[in-house]
Q: What sequence folds into this?
């Protein structure tokens, strides 16, 4: 169980300049030091593909048949180095151990580094200080403030939610998993003891702070009856984003490469030949590129989106007991790759590259959740007051008036 904290330290400089009776400028700069979220117990680790070595990977049990048979109905776990069949005390076979590490082989922390030990104590890094410029302007077209043109832009930074790091203390070596089978509580560990194939949740080590540039331009007009009309163009470009806005759409660094299950080298030979491709493929642990590790879910700050809209609002300010407003947004464009899967390819040594068809996949799915029409309305009505000289009615008025 981690003790997660972070600190945000921010300051800003801002100025408002009334250039003349018609033009007003607002401008400034926000400075943000956004500390990564981390476990003060330093129970965090990260995975570095470039430090993973196939030669140091644990050896995994493969399917094998008793008595040296080539095929069998139910396979046992076999040590591929010695050819020895694993015996499961109290069970008919040891097939549950297929795809798990053979004890005392390889490095169980292959490619894994512990926070504060050769890497940042946060287990990941991003810029120490970032800058958010802001600018706005308003110009009175008529000189009597009945028609005002406004516009502005700014750069903003997002704090990723805690779900992106809460699971990291479950990574090895802080946490481990052992599967105990075929025993009772009184004899726990006397049956089949299977070493775990650990999965990891990580944060991209050299991460970026999720950012968005937002801008708008429009005109505001004073209308009769204490009302106003505002019509504006509003845009937003998000970059260095996580895969999703809540919890994170992670990238599985140890995803099985597309097509692997069809290759002859990854078929379970103990099941004989099959006329159906991939029907006899090995279990996932034996197909993964980083052998000895399970799913490696990385929170990756490499996604983007772009949004354009026309936003209008009609408002009547509170007067004579009534106020109301109507807002309509016309969504023009919302595209990007936020929420899409990152398709990876691994070479024989585990080096990662982007799948050649990644861009085609993103192009096919680039239209995100565009809300074409959004309409909102609101009103406030001050109910008529109860006024009376009658004592009872006056008492009731104290309760019901001013609602």
A:
């Amino acid at each position: 169980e981690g003790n997660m904290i972070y600190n945000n330290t921010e300051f800003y400089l801002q100025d408002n300049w009334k250039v003349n009776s018609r033009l007003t400028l607002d401008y400034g700069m926000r400075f943000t030091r956004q500390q990564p979220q981390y476990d003060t117990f330093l129970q965090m680790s990260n995975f570095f593909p470039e430090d993973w070595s196939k030669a140091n990977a644990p050896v995994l049990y493969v399917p094998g048949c008793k008595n040296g048979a080539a095929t069998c109905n139910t396979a046992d776990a076999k040590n591929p180095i010695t050819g020895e069949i694993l015996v499961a005390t109290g069970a008919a076979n040891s097939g549950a151990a297929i795809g798990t590490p053979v004890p005392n082989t390889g490095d169980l922390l292959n490619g894994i580094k512990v926070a504060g030990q050769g890497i940042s104590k946060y287990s990941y890094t991003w810029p120490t200080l970032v800058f958010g410029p802001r600018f706005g302007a308003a110009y009175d077209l008529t000189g009597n403030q009945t028609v005002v043109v406004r516009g502005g832009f700014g750069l903003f930074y997002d704090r990723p939610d805690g779900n992106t790091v809460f699971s990291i203390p479950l990574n090895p070596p802080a946490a481990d998993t052992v599967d105990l089978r075929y025993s009772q509580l009184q004899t726990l560990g006397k049956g089949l003891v299977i070493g775990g194939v650990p999965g990891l949740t990580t944060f991209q080590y050299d991460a970026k702070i999720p950012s968005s540039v937002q801008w708008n331009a429009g005109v505001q007009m004073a209308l009769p009856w204490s009302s106003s009309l505002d019509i504006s163009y509003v845009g937003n470009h998000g970059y260095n984003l996580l895969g999703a806005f809540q919890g994170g759409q992670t990238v599985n660094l140890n995803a099985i490469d597309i097509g692997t299950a069809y290759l002859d080298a990854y078929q379970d030979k103990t099941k004989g030949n099959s006329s159906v491709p991939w029907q006899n493929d090995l279990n996932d642990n034996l197909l993964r590129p980083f052998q000895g590790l399970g799913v490696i879910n990385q929170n990756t700050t490499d996604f983007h989106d772009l949004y354009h809209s026309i936003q209008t609002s009609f408002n009547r300010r509170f007067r004579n007991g009534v106020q109301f407003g109507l807002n309509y947004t016309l969504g023009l464009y919302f595209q990007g790759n936020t929420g899409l899967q990152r398709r990876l390819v691994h070479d024989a040594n585990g080096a990662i590259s982007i799948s050649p068809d990644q861009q085609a996949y993103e192009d096919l799915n680039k239209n995100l959740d565009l809300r074409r029409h959004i309409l909102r309305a609101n009103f406030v009505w001050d109910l008529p007051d109860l006024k009376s000289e009658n004592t009872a009615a006056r008492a009731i008025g104290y309760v019901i008036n001013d609602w």
Notes: DSSP finds three helices and 22 strands in the chain. The radius of gyration is 31 Å.
